[in-house]
Amino acid sequence: MKTFTPPPIRPGIHPRSGLGYRIDHGVRSSVPFLFVFFATLVLSAPLNLPGQVELMPAIIMATIFLWSVFVPALMPSLAVFVLGIWADILSFGPAGVMLLMMLIVHGVALSGRYTLARVNFFVLWLVFGVVMVGVTALQWVLCCALALHIVEFLPFVFETVLAFGSFPVLYVGFVWTYRFVVNNADRA
Amino acid sequence: MPVSIQFRQALGKLVLPALILVACGVILLGKADRGLIEKLRMNTADLLAPAYGLVAWPQEKLRWVSGNLQDIRNLEAENIRLRAENTSLRHWYDVAAALADENATLKANLHWIPDNAPTFVSGRVVRDTSGLYARAVLLSLNPDTAVRKGGIALDGAGLVGRVTEVGRRSARVLLITDSSSRLPVTLESSHAAAIMAGDNSALPRIIFYPQDNVPIEGERVVTNGEIESLPAGLPVGHVHYLRPGQPVVVPAADLDHVDMLRVFDYEDSVVPPDAPGRVPLPSGGGTMPLPTHSDQGLHG
């Protein structure tokens, strides 16, 4: 027989508990992780999109940057690490370079988040651009060092520009996801 | 375990630096032990190969339909061109038949030992793993077939690349345009030996050609048999000068859209006889000019 629990003193304040709620909450919280995971998977498939190779780091970096700045609880360092290993396995580049780039972007966003979360969108965009330039330069240096010869520079410039350009789109997607998917548990 | 809040905060701050250190460790590990990373990647690619094939299928159908539509538009012009080509080809057929006859007669007179027919495996390209650093494709293969590292991949028109990693159901083929690809080639008209070096662009460069016998624009480039796993005479492409003093090879194979590849196994096709004083080659990466090779007399 179901036991009777008295109604709470202030109804609506306490979150609903129970298995259904916890599953719902868990799925909503893992949306950023799952998004990056599947974006990496889909962009590694042979879609023959122009600039597909450069699009993958662009989308990954922008997404990690945004979630690390605004909701670091849903993009913890360990999740970034797992995603970095996943991206490295799927991308056939020098091992560990993507992983290091993602962790650096995450770290920069995390350390500056009290400032970055309050600034104007355009300033945030600019900051992301600067971070991207630095990280891609590091990637180029590492690739050259690991390949023991100078690697062509232009694809890396293209990667940076693509990341910079796709940032507003991902920002809109982030705001929408945060407002209507992640943070909407009570109205669902 | 009860832990004080301060301790937990300090621990939380240490996670990211620790992970960055681990990432540096992964980079070093990838450099020190390439085999481990490659095995991991090939296993993942093996798992995903059917899914990649599923993605590639509708694209191929779409390309086929659009190609058909274009063909229908150009039918008239195509017919005229084909008729002209057909007459010229008929002439060449007669020439080829006469030459084949003559060749057979000469070989019969010379007690010619025929080459072993190489075995080959065909596979569909499921994914272009070309990135910022490499030019390579992933080939989906039947698990029962034996493809070995060092196999030679050809499409209908010419040399495509060499197999560098082999998984259970897939193999990775490093294209001749990759920056780490170096192949010994022969230039057919000038009879010069040279090295074809990829540089991640669509046109691999020709280097180390003799300075008194420079490559001629438009001449055919074929492989020469200086390395054991690659026989002489496979078509590679033709010479083109980007600017004076910079000859490149225009590959005969369509490297932008590789669909189906045949992987030939030429390994051990010529086994040098055991002789006293012969130093056995180290396994893998052994190169040695073979004096008994069949085409030596034609190109050398």
UniProtKB/TrEMBL annotation, chain A:
The superkingdom listed in its UniProt entry is Bacteria
What are the UniProt keywords, alphabetically?
A: Membrane, Transmembrane, Transmembrane helix
Q: Mark the transmembrane ranges.
A: 29-47, 59-86, 92-110, 122-150, 156-178
Q: Looking at the keywords, is Transmembrane helix present?
A: yes
Q: Does the keyword Transmembrane apply?
A: yes
What name does this protein carry? Rod shape-determining protein
Organism in which the protein naturally occurs: Komagataeibacter nataicola
Automatic annotation (TrEMBL), chain B:
Role played: Involved in formation and maintenance of cell shape.
* Alphabetical list of NCBIfam families matching this protein: PRK13922.12-1
Stretches assigned to the Rod shape-determining protein MreC beta-barrel core domain? 132-263
Statement: the UniProt record of this protein carries the keyword ATP-binding? no
Task: Offer one Pfam family short name for this entry.
Answer: MreC
| Name of this chain's protein | Cell shape-determining protein MreC
UniProt region (Disordered), positions on chain: 272-300
Q: Which GO terms describe its biological process?
A: regulation of cell shape
Q: What keywords are annotated for this sequence in UniProt?
A: Cell shape, Membrane, Transmembrane, Transmembrane helix
Gene Ontology cellular component?
plasma membrane
Q: What residues form the membrane-spanning segments?
A: 14-32
Q: Which family does it belong to?
A: Belongs to the MreC family.
